[in-house]
Every structure is written in C-alpha cells, then in structure tokens.
Amino acid sequence: MTFTSALHAECLKIRTLRPLLGGLCAMLLSTVAFSALSALSASSANASAGRDAEDFDPLFSVFLGVSFGQIAAIAFATTAVSAEFRGGALRLSLAAVPQRGRWFAAKLTAIALPVLAVGLTTGLVTFAVGSAMLGEKADGPGPAGWLRAVVGCGVYLTLMALLAAGLTAVLRSGTATLAVLVPFLLIVSFVVGDMSGNVADLLPDRAGQVVLHSRWGGSLGPWTGLAVTAVWTAAAVMAGAWRVRREDA
What we know:
By secondary structure, this protein is mainly alpha-helical. The chain has ten helices and no strands. Helix content is about 80%, strand content about 0%.
C-alpha cells in the first residue's frame, strides 16, 4: 500500500470515531472559552486598577486558554494511537501496510493535519473573541504580534499532539500517556518553573508558549521556543517509531 492510501485509511479511521471528533471540538471550545474568560478578567482588572500597560500582556491574556486546549489536543492524539493497541487493531493495520515506518508516518500525518487545521481556526476565533473583549488594549501587539500568536497557536497544538502520539506509541497505552502528560502540564511544569529558573524555559510547554506572549524575559524567543518544543516532539516520535518497529503487534 502506498503512503497516500495508508494516509487515506488513517484519516477514515479518525472521521469514523466520534471521540476523536469530539476531541477536536473540545480543543476549539475549551481554548476559546477559557481565553474569553481570561481576556474579560484582564480587561476588568486593568480598568479598575489602572494597571500600567508595561505590566500587561495582551497576547497571553487572550491566548491563556491554549493551556487548557492542549489537553484536548493531547487526548485526541492519544486516543487515535492507543486505539491501535486494543482488540488486535494494530495487526489488521500492519496487514494492510506491512511497512511499519510508512504506517506510523501515515498515522502521525492523519493526526497532525486535523489538529493543525483546528488549531489555526482556534487561533483565529480566540483572537477575534479575545481582542474584542480587550477593546483598545488589543492594539498593543500590532498585526504582526497577533498573526504570530494565531499561527503559533496552531503549530504549538500540533506539536503537543504529535508529542503525545509518539509517547503513546512508546507506552502502548493511552491511559499511561495521559497519566504522565496531564499532571506534568497542569502541575509539574509550573512547580519546576518556579523553582528552577531558566532551566524551565526548555520544557516543551513553557518553551512553545513563548510564541503566545507579547514579551518574554527568558533565553528563548517565540520561534526558538517552538523549535525547542519541536525537538521534544521529534524525540518522542522517533522513540515511538522505534517501539513500533521492534515490538510485536
């Protein structure tokens, strides 16, 4: 089977599994909802306290919801890969595509494409809703800053989904992957960040989310931060590919 045929088959699996479609919807809705609350809260706080503009980050105030939307992206990718390890589904997939590397590449592509599309849409909707709530305070980052955040939102969510996909292939369990990633993103990353200084800048989530800030004080910039996240993702994907090649279906 060619790569195109394998990709078509993997995309068909995703379209026919309702939990996966629900995960994509949750990624958009959770990001927009929490971002709207954050932008509304930030706008109200600035209006009442008269906070100086230098202490206010309009980009991250609007895109704060990405911290929650990434959980949905991770759950989507984890479910898509872990489904192969239940009920002998992987044996059927490899019977159709004996080249394991080709199959895994098709699986990752089938995950990345919808996450990127929904991630970019999420960035646009988040920008529209959040900037409307901020009003004149949204003028600070300028068009270039907002465009960077919108594109960065889609790229960041895609990288985190692929990182989860690679880790799921290594652990061969969606539950184990979520048990590792979700507490790390919601708890450990913040604790380590508060205690370790610049070392935390190299964590995948903290590095990638620099692109969502108007200003940053660490050693990484917006695109170098995404590059660090991409390195983490590449490592997870390569480890997953190794496990797929080595282990029995």
